[in-house]
Amino acid sequence: MRARGLTRSFGDLVAVDAVDLSVPRAQVYGFLGPNGSGKSTTIRMLCGLLIPTRGDIRVLGLDIPAQAEALRQRIGYMTQRFSLFEDLSVRENLEFMAAAQGVPRRRTRARIDELVEQYHFGDRQAQLAGTMSGGQKQRLALAAAVIHAPELLFLDEPTSAVDPESRRDFWEKLFELADAGTTLLVSTHYMDEAERCHRLAILDRGVLVADGTPAELTARLAGRTLEVQSSRPRRAKRLLVDLPGILSVAQIGNALRVLAGDGEDAQARVRDALREQDGDAAVDRVEPNLEDVFVDATRGSPTHRELHPGPDAGGGA
Do you know which Pfam families this protein is assigned to (predicted)? Predict the structure, then answer.
């Protein structure tokens, strides 16, 4: 899947602004961004549900939106809301989706039996979907989305309403699909899910502000993430949030996690700022994580500061 210069405007609002994306086959590609960043709009354009204002899209060798109808037979789509029929049973929902996706009738029964076993619905085939837990509904929605064995699967914040154990099980199913050759594009708000992806893109106000593997993205922040151990963490935080060049200060237990705008003398600058009022504070470098990447991309990137100046521009937390 490839997009170049992908743009979508709604009147004067530019929801997606000249985004370039390349998604390799048989990988889990993560989509991150704050609410209103353009993730869902981008996904809808990539799968042919929304016509872009400008830009070129090619998915599975097809030009989109011109060949969107042909594409729909080869993709699956799952949203954060449960969109199946709550007054139908598990099996009835799968039978309906098989018919809607054009699965041959001679193949339908065997395919549903396969999914019932794979997604652990053996003792729940007759249960009404509306009586199921959030995690069970999520598994049913995923089974329905892949009933026609799509080559490409779009998932728009699919785990936003389920517990951590269900999310973990769900991601195991996603990797099973990727191992079998399915390409997946997943939007999420969860950093632990982002860490599982083969590759990530971060959108902010419609602009692509970061793109790479989790390891590549975190490596770019080398030397810029610090941990402050202080007996008075709240007071130390108040001192640091106004320090020039500091993008973020977050309290984690009794420690502070600090993200600097650059790595040059960051540790010394933070230590000097604390010395007069908190001389016992310890300042150490720590390994960056994806939450640091997210904060840097949405608050500290040059693109973000240039396009969206505001109270955070220039490094204020």
Answer: ABC_tran
pLDDT in tens, 237-288: 999 998 999 999 999 988 999 999 987 888 999 999 898 777 788 999 999 9
Q: How many domains does the chain have?
A: 2
Residue 316 forms part of a structural domain: no
Neighbour count for residue 298 (Cβ, 10 Å): 23
- 29 shares its domain with 130: yes
Q: Is residue 118 part of a domain?
A: yes
Q: Reduce the DSSP state of residue 49 to 3 states and report it.
A: coil
CA atoms within 13 A on the CB side of 197: 31
pLDDT tens for residues 35-56?
889 999 999 999 999 999 999 9
- Looking at the fold, whether 194 and 224 belong to one and the same domain comes out as no
